[in-house]
Structures are given as structure tokens and as C-alpha cells.
Amino acid sequence: MYEIHIDTENDSLFQGTKKAANIWKKKSATKVNNLTQRDIEDMFKLEQEDYPREIVPFADHPDFLSAPEELKQDVLSWGAIAYNNGAVSAEEKVSNPAFLMILRDVFPGTSHEAIKLSAAQAIVDESYHILLHTYGTNIIYRKRNLKPLTIPDYLPSRILNQLKENVSLTWEKNLLTLVFAVVSEASVNAYLNLIANNTTIQPLFQKIAKLHSDDEYRHAKVCSEIIKSIYLHFNQDQKNLFIKTYKIGLEKILAHDFDTWESILVQLGFKKAKEIINDCRNMPEKSHLVRDYTFHKKFAEEMGIFELLDFDFSKTKIVN
Ligand SMILES: [Fe+2]
Ligand SMILES: [Fe+2]
Q1: Which neighbouring-strand residues pair with 49?
Q2: What domain count does the chain have?
Q3: 6-23 pLDDT, tens per residue?
Q4: Which CATH number does the domain housing residue 249 bear?
Q5: How far apart are CA 267 and CA 231, in angstroms?
Q6: What pTM, to 2 d.p., does this model score?
Q7: Would residue 100 count as lying in a domain?
Q8: Number of the ligand closest to the Cα of 99
Q9: 193 lies in which domain range?
């Protein structure tokens, strides 16, 4: 049984969400994009690399540089597959579960019609992103004639899973997913843009990343307004867990996933695979793909939790 209560008043509180919901039909990737299978085939260029070398943490390692070129290309292809796989996992295990809970009144302060509409639209968007990244993986696999490898799940999904295992109550598990969703929604652009703005890699992957990134700009805005409303209704225990988890999420999001890289190198038979990855693990400057906390700093200030969060926002390193 569901008690259905949709708030059709208090519009002024959710202006941004309402605006995002109204422009969705014109802006959403699922509406503006009409990629056909033919386009996908045409946009995959065998001679172009599948993943930017600049964001491979060991790209400048002497043992990587001296490896055969064909093997290096396989590493880049698997980097792209791991990235696509990560995007799918983020939608499946973090974003869509959170938007579904918002839609289903699991959290207080989410009854406004604009919130319901935006959450439902975001679920459509995220599902479409799963499709886009599946195009990406399929075509790499086929065109590069790859053998199967087993790689770990997306790092933030693994961390969220661990955190959920450490708590026992349902509201705690739900809140952990919500926090990881807002961290992810407001951070993923930075990663997507590293691909979208790289003109040396597959044009198809640039396009997929750009389509996805444009949606996430809107999601970040919608999420911030929804979370502010939810947070106002939280009790002290919920607020405490929110802040503690937000800080963990900020630290872990967009960290390099060395376990995945190691697994790829080992399975591809790369010489000194573990040594290469261990060298990177021991270099603090290689810990993160990118650190862009611009949105989060402003959000924390607006939420009134900046001091409580006690996070070092000066680590922000923006890559355009
Ligand atoms: Fe997405
Ligand atoms: Fe999103």
C-alpha cells in the first residue's frame, strides 16, 4: 500500500527542479540524440585509441612505455571498457536506486510534483546512459576482437556496498545510497569531460561522454535542490550520517581504481603488472583521476554544513 501525496503548491521552493523538468524534453540525451547502429559503426575508427593515455595512471611508467604497442592498445581498450562498465554500475547501483527512493517517498521532503517528475525523468536518463555505454563496450569488444576478462565492479559501488554492510538499519542503508548518489551526480561530469573533450580518442566515445555529461549537469542541479529539502526534514542521527558519508564520498569519488587496472594488466599478461600498479599506489599525486569539488563546496555552504563537513576543498584540481 502506498499513500500517494503530491504537493502541488510551494513552487518557489523548487524553482530549479521545476525548470529542469520543463526543459527535459528539449535537453535530455534520450530526446536529442538519434544515434543509429550505422552511426556507431561509422564513428568507430580503428586507428584511433579507445581511451586517453593522459588519464591512465601508469602511462608514464617506464615498464608501460617499453611494452609492445599492441599490448598497450589492449590496455587502453580495456580502460575504455572498465569506464563504460563503471558508468553502467553507477547508474544501476547508485543513481537509479536513489532516484527510485525519491520517487517512492522513502525520504521526507520529496512530495512536490516537480521533484517526482524530475526523479522519474532522471531514471529515464540514467537508463539511457546504460544503453549509450553498452554501445561503447559492445563495439570495442567486437572491433578489437578482445578475449573476455573479469574485472572488479566500479570502485564507488564497491565502497558503497562495504559501507552498507557496516550498518544494520534500513534507513541507514538508504541514506548511504542517497549520499553516494549526490556525490556521484555532481562529480561524474569531471570524469566524463576528460573523455568528451579529448579529441585524440574515438569520436564515438567523445560523443557518448558529451551526451551523458550534459544530462549530468542538469541532474546535479536537481539533486542539490532535492537533497536540501530532504536534509531539512532529517533528524540529528540522519544529519550526522549524511555528513560523515558525504565526506567519505568526496574523498573516494574519482579516485583511480588501481585494483581494476591491476586486474587488467595481470590478465593481459603484462610484465611486472603488480610492480607498475604498486609504484602508482605509492605516489599520492596519482591517487585521483581528477578532483573537482567546485559544485560540492558551494553546495555545502548553501546547506550550512561546510564547517561540519571539515573537508579540504583546496585539493580541487579542475581539468578542462
Ligand atoms: Fe548518468
Ligand atoms: Fe545522473
Answers
A1: 201
A2: 1
A3: 988 887 888 999 999 999
A4: 1.10.620.20
A5: 45
A6: 0.95
A7: yes
A8: 2
A9: 14-34+68-315
